Sequence to fold (76 residues):
Amino acid sequence: MRTVTITQFCQEASHLLSNVEKGETYIIVRHGKPIAEIIPYTGITTYPPSWKRRGLRLQVKGASLSAAILSERTEE
Fold:
């Protein structure tokens, strides 16, 4: 697995993609941080379909909604 910058990838895209066809894997970095991985196509999807993926779990600051509802019920 080789690491290349975005600039290197843009300049050598044809050559790098030829290497990917031969089985090479590349990590694309921007400012030293990985942003993409280029791997040979296998025809097999390794990621679950979007409807099976877990959604984001949101956390709201402050009192919980159920506690607020219960306190309003007791005030009435």
About this structure: Strands lie at 2-5, 26-30, 33-38.
